[in-house]
Amino acid sequence: MLRINNLVKTFDGERRRRHSHAATPEEARVFAVNDVSFNVENGQLFTLLGPSGCGKTTTLRSIAGLERPDSGTIEVGGRVLFSTNEGKKPVNVPANERGLGMVFQSYAIWPHMSVFDNVAFPLQVKKRGDRVSRKEISERVMRVLETMELANFADRQATKLSGGQQQRLALARALVIEPPLLLLDEPLSNLDAKLRESLRYELKRVQRELGITSVYVTHDQVEALALSNSIAVMRNGNVVQLGRPREIYENPNCRFVAEFIGTSNFLSGNVVSKDGDRYTVNTVDGQLVLDSAATLPIGTDVIVSVRPEAVEVSTTSRAGEVPNEWKGTVLTRAYLGDSLDHVVGLGKHELRTRGNPSTSIEPGTTVYLRMDPAKLVLVPVD
Amino acid sequence: MITASPTVPARERAMPGWLRRVATPKTLIIVVVAGLIGYLALVPLYYLIWGTFFDANGFTMGGFARAYGDPRVGGMIGNSLWFAIGAAVLSLAVGTALAYLNVRTDVPFKGLFFAASIIPLIIPGILYTISWIFLASPDIGLLNKLIEPVLGPGFFDVFTVWGMVWVEGLHLSPIVFLLMVAAFRSMDPSLEESALMSGASRWQVFRRITVPLTRPAIVAAVLIMVVRSLESFEVPALLGLQNGIYVFTSRIYFVLRSYPPDLAAAGALAVGLLVLAVIGVAISNLVGRSSKNYQTVTGKGFRPRPMELGKWRPVMGGAIVVYFFLTVVGPLLVLLYTSLLKFYQAPSTEAFASMSLDNYSELFHISDATTALKNSLLLGVGSATLVMALMAVGAWMVVRSRIPGRQLVDYFSFTPLVVPGLVLGLALSFVYLRSPVPIYGTIFILLIAYCTRYMPYGMRYAVTSMHQISSELEESAQVSGASWWQTFRRVLLPLLSPGLLAGWIYILVVSFRELSSSILLYSPGNEVLSILIFEQYENGQFTVLAALGVVMVLTLAVLVVIAYKLGAKVGLRQD
């Protein structure tokens, strides 16, 4: 559906050059997007996830046509929107002829129009050839407002809507032309936490029901995990990992992804033995066995990522029965309502664990930590 | 004029109890400041009305009858509106286009915008007008000489209403530019981008999104420019009077300069002008209030993503260079050129050969010139200091105090904003011609005029910086046991000082260029720089005048640079 190949966008480093000491404009160039490629299948919700400045918004805006990439190709449903392929005529369809839907971070609701007019606008400005009759405009606008549960507000001034309603209005406006692709630029980031959660499911429902292919940009990993069919984690203009939400969470391919998605303990160590997929790793705090599909030779420096919820805390030892049991002392604990965290001191390091709130252990108590080999992740050293 | 003197203890002891409670330094200072602000704002207006409607025999409409009974009055009002609206529309078109290019596109030469935006501050209207006479007068204009071989002599004629519109419009365009830059910057670019994504063409986006959303700013800008052009004196006086094109301001000046001066008729014209100005300001305030509905709340600052102009980039760049030459380089160069000549002539090898600095050395020998410079400096420093001292207290009353009627202080301090300079000059002469204290004919009447005119600017600076100081800082001083005066002097004043200093310099700069009030109030020996330039123009001493103008521009440029370094909001800041 959406195919992006070798997308590159640099920003003119002119100003930066004056401040840094780069000698040439080439050196001062900043890669906002550096050789990004991905495909999005029909009806999927694809998320670009990463910290601010990672190039996710630039990628989205390049698809929208609001930003002109330096090179690469962008194709939607077989139609080339942008291309700089060698030997062929360069293509750059202007944003207003791409026919895509977009929801902006600020919603960009036009404050001087009513709710109805906001949604009608994309139909009103259609080219002479495929202009829509007044009656049809009204029907289509009302239909989409109905879907978004905004039909009762049609005549209201757009600025009189609440945050959540504005978000639905922005979505209605993007969808009214029935675009082949919907672009969403952090659409939930302006809402408070409660509303964000309910709208997240609302958005997912609408997207799945309409089956509209979407590209979603966010820096919120929870949002990305909850909404997406697949996620591309971006960093410094590159896609560092691309996969289904569960893969990304359970098998991060580098420390950055493991750190960015969820919380994790990182233990550095060294591969001492390997038997099929089962690795034994020596760390400062002890030995760990774990399963990994990676192929790393013995002697490699690695990092073991331990999710807090993958650690079982107990006051009794089951040494010998299960692998990976370490002894430590509870340093502090925090009750979080739906879970309870313990920070356990182990010789040199501390390990954060998360478990059921019914297990609450006094600080100072000696405890035994057990880690399931299947839940430990071997991360190559960057 | 006022120094906040602490009460003398000896006298305090002799006071009755209630008086001692009331007559604290705090109340004394507040009463004096409020009284002065009210006096400066209201008394001239009262005397203006009185002098217009009353003569020795009581109430009369005679002034009105004489002023508006004149058969040429229809033409005068027509010219005024034509001139004011024309200049406003020109400045709006140019200023808005430039602002849009600067904020929203990747147009080249963005640095030039900054230079152009401070031009109205450093080239006073009178010099700007005279420069354009040098450039586009049908007889001596350099531009006319330049194109004479092609289009014949006297192609451009600056001494027409169109010429007046051109000069005033160009001089005002940087102000519109600044207003519209603020408007465009505060507008979320994604409002336009979303329209583009909806399939609208650039033109549709401009017409249906950009213009409606910036309409409040556009309307406000156009009204402010209409009012400013109506009040403009330099351009109509120097360009219009030549061919008998009168507007309100030049008519008032003419009536007062004819013999015997008809004060009541001038007053009647001034009242008419004042009414027009008040209407303009009132409408723009109304528009400003209704524009609040348009404000959109967005979570975070906008990332400026300039639109790429593509093949239009060089064209727009060229247009900006042309604009820059017309507004900045041309007028400055022609002044500099003229200042080096023995007598005014078109550029030729002889002209360049005869160049010397004689005019500059002559400036030192004209006693008037040194007196005028001294007077200008004295008045600038004096009025800036007095105004900022008054307004520091005034702003405290408006922003912080709970004194009943404090809003009046606010209103009064802003009243002079709607009073055209010439009208204020006339009103003050009404007041002090009758005053038993000999103020008329001294430099003090100019000081009073300047203080009145610049009160609104001072108030704006002081109020803005007062708002930036948390009231808790003041409260903690009080809790620590400081009295009101100690709190004011040791906590508020130091914290306010950057804002007060910025306002001080701004007033110093604008007072240097003041002409329209001074022209009615000065007396021989009390000339200021702008008056001297005006006189020299009338005497045809173009070359000395140009030298004086260059000195004035340089002085102002230095002041503006200092103001800029101090962080005052003058011109446009890149980034």
TrEMBL record, chain A:
The keyword Transmembrane does not apply. Gene3D superfamilies: 2.40.50.100, P-loop containing nucleotide triphosphate hydrolases. SMART domains: AAA. GO terms for cellular component: ATP-binding cassette (ABC) transporter complex, substrate-binding subunit-containing. Keywords: ATP-binding, Cell membrane, Membrane, Nucleotide-binding, Translocase, Transport. One of its GO terms (molecular function) is ATP binding. Residues 2-261 form the ABC transporter domain. The keyword Glycosyltransferase does not apply. It comes from the Bacteria. It holds the Pfam family TOBE_2. PROSITE patterns: ABC_TRANSPORTER_1, ABC_TRANSPORTER_2. This is ABC-type quaternary amine transporter. InterPro entries: AAA+_ATPase (IPR003593), ABC_transporter-like_ATP-bd (IPR003439), ABC_transporter-like_CS (IPR017871), ABC_transpr_MalK/UgpC-like (IPR047641), Mo/tungstate-bd_C_term_dom (IPR008995), P-loop_NTPase (IPR027417), Transp-assoc_OB_typ2 (IPR013611). It is an enzyme of class 7 (translocase). Its EC number is 7.6.2.9. SUPFAM superfamilies: MOP-like, P-loop containing nucleoside triphosphate hydrolases.
UniProtKB/TrEMBL annotation, chain B:
Keywords: Cell inner membrane, Cell membrane, Membrane, Transmembrane, Transmembrane helix, Transport. InterPro entries: MetI-like, MetI-like_sf. It is found in: Cell inner membrane; Cell membrane. It holds the Pfam family BPD_transp_1. Coiled coil: none annotated. GO terms for cellular component: plasma membrane. Its main location: membrane. GO terms for biological process: transmembrane transport. Residues 77-282, 373-563 form the ABC transmembrane type-1 domain. It is a multi-pass membrane protein. The chain crosses the membrane at residues 28-49, 81-101, 113-135, 155-184, 205-227, 263-287, 315-337, 377-399, 411-433, 439-456, 491-512, 542-564. Belongs to the binding-protein-dependent transport system permease family. This is Iron ABC transporter permease. It comes from Planotetraspora mira.
